[in-house]
Specification:
Largest sheet: 4 strands, mixed
Helix content: 10-25%
Number of strands: 8
Length: 136
């Protein structure tokens, strides 16, 4: 009976394990955190300025931006976030009206995963209304 060299056996085993790991990494899609997603529709006849703040689960403000939304227009906003969780969306209309809504950010998938929060500035432009959430 012939004895096998343990160094060669170890190298072959490492190569096989490496090939299996490589095949697994290629075959399995990379799991990424989805974006924070919201949309704002202005149904008013006047343009409006809306301040959008996105606050993470640890109460840290990640985004604070102002958007001008033209009359009878809808805008979509996607922002990268660092972690999964429940994020707070705070929208402030140009007249000082504030609405706060929570929405979840999950792992990104092909069929959608995170909530797309939908807001509307109704005719008259005195407030912002939360219009529901869909899967982004």
């Amino acid at each position: 009976m012939q004895r096998r060299n343990p160094v060669i056996v170890a190298i072959v085993m490492i190569a096989i394990v490496g090939l299996i790991l490589l095949a697994f990494m290629i075959a399995v899609p990379k799991i990424q955190i989805d974006d924070a997603v919201l949309s704002i529709e202005n149904e008013d006849i006047e343009d409006h300025e809306v301040r959008v703040e996105i606050i993470d689960p640890q109460d840290v403000r990640l985004y604070d931006e102002v958007y001008v939304i033209e009359a009878d227009t809808r805008i979509g906003i996607r922002k990268s976030v660092p972690e999964l969780g429940m994020y707070t969306y705070r929208l402030t209309l140009d007249n000082g009206f504030i609405i706060t809504q929570n929405g979840s950010v999950e792992y990104s998938t092909n069929v959608g995963s995170s909530e797309n929060l939908e807001f509307v500035i109704p005719s008259g432009g005195v407030c912002i209304v939360f219009d529901g959430a869909t899967i982004a």
